[in-house]
Amino acid sequence: MKSTINQIENSQVxxxxxxxxxxxxxxxxxxxxxxxxxxxxxxxxxGKAPEAIAKKHIRNEHVMMDAVEDIAQSALxxxxxxxxxxxxxxxxLHVEAISDTQVxxxxxxx
Length: 110
Prior knowledge:
There is one protein chain. Helix content is 43%, strand content 26%. It is elongated, with a radius of gyration of 17 Å. By secondary structure, it is of the alpha+beta class. The protein starts with a strand and ends with a strand.
């Protein structure tokens, strides 16, 4: 993970965290596996469809967004610790960029 901060008005900062490589791929794989376990496809028992068939039924966009939800907390903690921030309120999360290989998150913190 990589993180940077940008000071904006008053006591607000933007915390940018980039998650890439194995960490991001593992998050996506875990979400896909969980979704595949609950998938019902005709001709297969629940959760027993082959991976190739499951990929046709599980949208990649849903996998990525669920992976963002799973990894956002650890990305926030990483950025807070790296820049020694003390938060007063819960930050706003924005997805700046997302692909199969990386995700760039922006937290607006006060």
